[in-house]
Amino acid sequence: MKLIVLGSGTSVPHPRRSSSAHWVETRGGTLLLDPSATAVHRAAEEGLDWAGLDAVWVSHFHLDHVGGLAPFLFSTKYAPQTRARRKPLHVYGPRGTRKLLEAFDGAGDYKLFEQPFPVEVRETAPRAEFEMLPGVRAATLSTPHTSESLALRLDDTAGGGASLAYTSDTGYADALADFARGVKLFLLECSFFRAKSVEIHLELSEAMRLARRAAPGRVVLSHLYPEWDGVDLAAEAAKLWDGETIEARDGLRLEV
Ligand SMILES: [Zn+2]
Ligand SMILES: [Zn+2]
User: Fold this and answer.
1) Which ligand is the nearest neighbour of the Cα of 20?
2) Helices in 35-161 by DSSP H: which ranges?
3) d(CA 93, ligand 1 centre) in Å
4) What's the pLDDT tens digit per position in 155-169?
């Protein structure tokens, strides 16, 4: 399994951090974790096969995470790169994902579901388990962020042993650590360094508390607000957890 950071930022425009989007490559196919407005253009910039993308995960409906979903389908409808595509695109997300897409669709009569290939939307409940890609088991957990927001855990069952948990946006909950226990790579939001102004995001001390409880192989901190500019994230994290913590940067590539 490979992780490529497309966007390590938030809703706040930033010169080096695009909105929240992460690309995962598995033996069973490719997966986009949150279709932010810039996600697919960033994938093209990284030389990734956006036209062959197998699945999209929508963690919640904040626009820095989902604002690129309808535009992506608008592009695949007309792009030369997808004209010959016949394999389905799977869109997984919380309850309401289809309604959200239909609302976009209706706003401009785009016929986004009429594609050269099938678009299969599957809405998932919290605590669901299913096969997201061939050989890749997925599990979900409700998170304290929005009513629909979900964390995702992926386990490669094809024999590689890779596993990844993605919190997306969340406040603190012990349940997140139990959910992510023992994963090879724990991809956590860490919106703020300290003195966070809202309950529904994490600051560093909380992210590291989750790391201590979950005992993952490595931690990647993403969804970084501009408050992080100029802070040595890895050094600050090392004061709170003795494992390896990596600062997400746009373009970062990791073997899971
Ligand atoms: Zn966000
Ligand atoms: Zn959010």
Assistant:
1) 1
2) 39-45, 63-66, 69-78, 97-108
3) 15
4) 999 878 899 999 999
CA dist 233 and 95 (Å) reads 35
Helix (H) or strand (E) segment spanning residue 130: strand 129-133
User: From CA 249, how far away is CA 222, in angstroms rounded?
Assistant: 8
Instruction: Return the number of other C-beta atoms located less than 10 Å from residue 223's C-beta.
Output: 30
Half-sphere exposure of 78 (CA within 13 A, CB side): 7
User: In terms of C-beta density within 10 A (0-12 exposed, 13-18 middle, 19 or more buried), how is residue 5 classed?
Assistant: buried
**64 noted as active-site residue:** yes
Which ligand lies nearest the alpha carbon of 150?
2
Catalytic residue among 34, 64, 155, 156: 64
Residue with tokens 């974790």: 33
**How far, in Å, from the CA of 10 to the mean position of ligand 2?**
9
**174 C-alpha to center of ligand 1: Å?**
20
Over the stretch 85-103, which tens digit does the pLDDT of each residue have? 999 999 999 999 999 999 9
CB 22 within 8 A of CB 33: yes
